[in-house]
Design brief:
253 residues, alpha/beta, Rossmann fold, two-stranded parallel sheet, 9 strands
């Protein structure tokens, strides 16, 4: 098991799903965790769960689509915990479902602002803080749709592909400065994001999507967290610039 004693982590979208699982895991293994989300109640609940298990965490309200809020959140993290070693850019939305020729401009900008610009802001303000702390790791949460396409999701696919490229660019830039940058590409995962879309066990939509994966099931948040935590750890010391799928065989078919 990797140790994160003395490490400080900043995680976006940590109020639920994958982000929460990562926060719980990092805290359990010794990291001080800044839990960021736009849902104050959910974020506070994650912090309470960490503290109940003896960990250290604080909640910071942050809309990742707002550069000033991300800059402030990272500054608050450094001020509270004395530095920054790990950034997990996890926050994201699904956005509207529509064909490219019919996609609304508002819907496009909303998805790009959160899913792509939000990751850039996390790196723009997180990387200098990590450098000042002696190095560390950035893990960007993309998607299988950062590797392949999906009809009626042009903004989401474009944003997640953008995260893949942004990851490679930053990894190249900071490889000799003690910062590793990687992206993870989950398949369809059982999270509130899918629940809100009506994709729940027993529904036709759930069965259809499960069948897209070679394992014929959806993944779980903890399965994705396992990969993220490993990439954030020193055990992945020679891994940077990688776009790693955790998708139950979705992209191998």
């Amino acid at each position: 098991m990797a140790s994160f004693q003395g490490k400080v982590a900043f995680i976006t979208g940590a109020g639920s799903g994958i982000g929460r699982e990562v926060a719980l895991r990092l805290a359990a293994e010794g990291a001080k965790v800044a839990v960021s989300d736009v849902d104050d109640a959910a974020g506070a609940e994650t912090v309470s769960m960490i503290e109940a298990s003896g960990g250290t965490a604080l909640f910071i309200h942050c809309n990742v689509a707002d550069a000033a809020e991300v800059e402030s959140a990272i500054a608050q993290t450094v001020e509270a915990f004395g530095g920054l070693n790990i950034v997990v850019n996890n926050a994201g939305i699904g956005g509207e479902a529509n064909m490219t020729g019919d996609y609304s401009l508002e819907g496009w900008h909303t998805v790009i602002d959160i899913n792509l610009n939000g990751v850039f802001y996390g790196m723009r303000y997180g990387i200098p803080a990590i450098l000042a702390s002696g190095g560390g790791s950035v893990v960007n949460v993309s998607s299988i749709l950062g590797l392949v396409g999906w009809a009626t999701a042009p903004a989401y696919v474009a944003a997640k592909h953008g995260v893949s490229g942004l990851t490679k660019a930053a990894a190249t830039e900071y490889a000799q400065q003690g910062i590793r940058v990687n992206s993870v590409h989950p398949g369809f995962i059982e999270t509130p994001l899918l629940t809100k879309a009506g994709i729940t066990p027993g529904t036709d939509g759930y069965t259809f999507i499960a069948g897209k994966h070679a394992m014929n099931r959806l993944g779980t948040a903890d399965e994705v967290a396992n990969l993220i935590v490993w990439l954030a750890s020193d055990e992945a010391s020679f891994v940077t610039g990688s776009n790693v799928a955790v998708d139950g065989g979705y992209t191998c078919q």
